[in-house]
């Protein structure tokens, strides 16, 4: 029986190869002529593949040679020369050399890494999918990825975006926030329930879409994520995926003191094996060097009426009413008041309820501005709400959403009582003059929150700045109104 099956597969394979051999090939001169005269392939959607698939591997090399002169390091220097960035930070320049090295290696390995979406190697890789079901094989990339980590505000995200934007747009690449990536993974797993190894199927789908995967703000604080990351990325790396990631944490510190961390440790080893680890250090937090002249951050909860007044000014003549926002897997999020791209929430409704990143992403897809009333000082008593608030800020920052809020203190004061274990140990020991009654019993000792604290303070500060609000306005002008106003206003939103 086994011999008959192998023989049958061999005949199918031979016929497929015979069919491929008979396919007409394009003349190389014609291809090069088309490349010189074609419109940028980035302006085409995936549905217009007829012309795009005519681009050969030689054409991809031509494109890369053009892009190579615009590498990340060159583009960084150009932005400094025109005043878009400050004079080069030595730490950033050192990181840029690593990024430029990766950029050059990828450019020299387009064929080996199957990077080009429309090249013959990509077609061969897709045709091998059927055979891999019978005869699994590994095709680990010859190029190692890059894991950048460092403190808040050191420019990690900016450097990743600089690298990503310089890559040819015909490559199989994706840039996504880690929160969003994991939500996508869980959604795919839900669709493939009942399969013997759904993680292998999900990894196959992801690697088919994107060989170069750029994940921003890599952090693990969820046990469900921690338990699947090792197997997921083993499949991804075996499929040739190249990972570029930014994080506030060194690999060895990921998911520190998390539940069942022993099951997560193999992922750290895999990460170190498949990525070059580079620390980016700087004494400057560039997010805090913005001007906060036009912010919407109001201290003291007594300003609730003022917040509602500003909310009404933003929605204009539109009528605010309760809404429902669709999130993932058929779930909906109740919005107390929403109109004209703006949503209003009391803090308790958004951060004291069992909500997560999926709900906040759904909110940001339907509303570009959030009015949040009554953000409290965080401590041990509302530690869970602090986790949700940190996630909310991350999601809003990633989506360039505008935050208007009333709060019990400055961004630093909100999170002052959140400390890491190391910070807690540095507190002066109790003496006869310092008794237990003087302790702060609301002090929250939590490593994950403690490390996220600085990032959240930094982001809240930047989101309150003139520069960030200008970026928000540009995003609203270009993305929010891509579709007709009424159609966009009702997208993913239903009346309660």
Characteristics:
ATP binding; 22 helices; ATPase_AFG1-like; 496 residues; Rossmann fold; ATP hydrolysis activity; five-stranded parallel beta sheet; 14 strands; ATP-binding; nucleotide-binding; alpha/beta
Reading side by side through the largest sheet, how are the strands ordered? 6-11-10-9-8-7-14
Question: How would a crystallographer describe the biggest sheet?
Answer: 7 strands, mixed
Global morphology: globular
CATH homology superfamily of the largest domain:
P-loop containing nucleotide triphosphate hydrolases
Helix/strand class: alpha/beta
CATH top level label of the largest domain: Alpha Beta
Q: What low-confidence regions span 5 or more consecutive residues with pLDDT below 50?
A: 5-62, 64-68, 120-131, 429-435, 482-491
- Beta content comes to 5-15%
Number of domains: 2
Mean pLDDT across all residues, rounded? 78
Provide the helix percentage: 40-55%
Distance between the termini: 61 Å
The third-level CATH topology of the largest domain is Rossmann fold
Number of strands: 14
Global Rg: 25 Å
Keywords: ATP-binding, Nucleotide-binding
Protein name: AFG1-like ATPase
Organism: Deinandra increscens subsp. villosa
GO molecular function, one term: ATP hydrolysis activity
């Amino acid at each position: 029986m086994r011999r008959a099956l192998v023989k049958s597969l061999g005949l199918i394979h031979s016929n497929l190869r015979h069919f491929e051999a008979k396919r007409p090939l394009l003349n190389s001169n014609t291809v090069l002529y088309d490349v010189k005269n074609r419109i940028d392939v980035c302006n085409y959607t995936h549905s217009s593949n007829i012309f795009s698939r005519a681009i050969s591997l030689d054409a991809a090399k031509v494109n890369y040679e053009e892009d190579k002169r615009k590498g990340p390091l060159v583009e960084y220097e150009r932005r400094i020369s025109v005043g878009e960035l400050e004079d080069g930070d030595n730490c950033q320049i050192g990181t840029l050399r690593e990024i430029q090295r990766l950029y050059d290696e990828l450019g020299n390995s387009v064929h080996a890494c199957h990077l080009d979406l429309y090249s013959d190697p990509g077609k061969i890789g897709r045709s091998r999918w059927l055979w891999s079901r019978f005869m699994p094989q590994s095709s680990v990339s010859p190029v190692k990825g890059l894991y950048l980590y460092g403190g808040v505000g050191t420019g990690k995200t900016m450097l990743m975006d600089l690298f990503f934007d310089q890559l040819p747009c015909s490559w199989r690449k994706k840039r996504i926030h880690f929160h969003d990536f994991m939500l996508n993974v869980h959604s795919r797993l839900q669709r493939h329930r009942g399969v013997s190894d759904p993680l292998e199927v999900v990894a196959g789908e992801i690697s088919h879409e994107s060989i170069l995967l750029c994940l921003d703000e890599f952090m693990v604080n969820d046990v469900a994520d921690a338990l699947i990351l090792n197997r997921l990325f083993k499949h991804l790396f075996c499929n040739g995926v190249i990972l570029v990631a930014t994080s506030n944490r060194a690999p060895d510190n990921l998911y520190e003191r998390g539940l069942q961390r022993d099951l997560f440790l193999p992922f750290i080893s895999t990460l170190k094996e498949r990525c070059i680890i580079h620390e980016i250090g700087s004494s400057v937090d560039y997010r805090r060097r913005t001007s906060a002249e036009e912010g919407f951050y109001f201290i003291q909860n007594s300003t609730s009426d003022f917040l509602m007044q500003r909310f009404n000014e933003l929605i204009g003549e539109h009528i605010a009413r309760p809404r429902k926002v669709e999130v993932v897997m058929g779930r909906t999020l109740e919005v107390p008041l929403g109109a004209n791209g703006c949503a209003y929430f009391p803090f308790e409704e958004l951060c004291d309820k069992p909500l997560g990143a999926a709900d906040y992403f759904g909110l940001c897809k339907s509303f570009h501005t959030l009015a949040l009333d009554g953000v409290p000082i965080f401590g041990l008593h509302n530690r869970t709400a602090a986790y949700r608030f940190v996630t909310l800020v991350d999601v809003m920052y990633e989506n360039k959403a505008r935050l208007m809020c009333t709060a019990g203190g400055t961004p630093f004061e909100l999170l002052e009582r959140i400390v890491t274990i190391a910070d807690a140990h540095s507190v002066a020991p109790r003496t006869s003059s310092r008794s237990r009654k003087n302790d702060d019993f609301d002090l929250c000792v939590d490593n994950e929150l403690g490390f996220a604290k600085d990032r959240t303070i930094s982001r809240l500060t930047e989101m309150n700045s003139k520069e960030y609000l200008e970026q928000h306005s540009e995003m609203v002008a270009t993305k929010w109104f891509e579709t007709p106003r009424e159609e966009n206003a009702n997208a993913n939103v239903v009346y309660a």
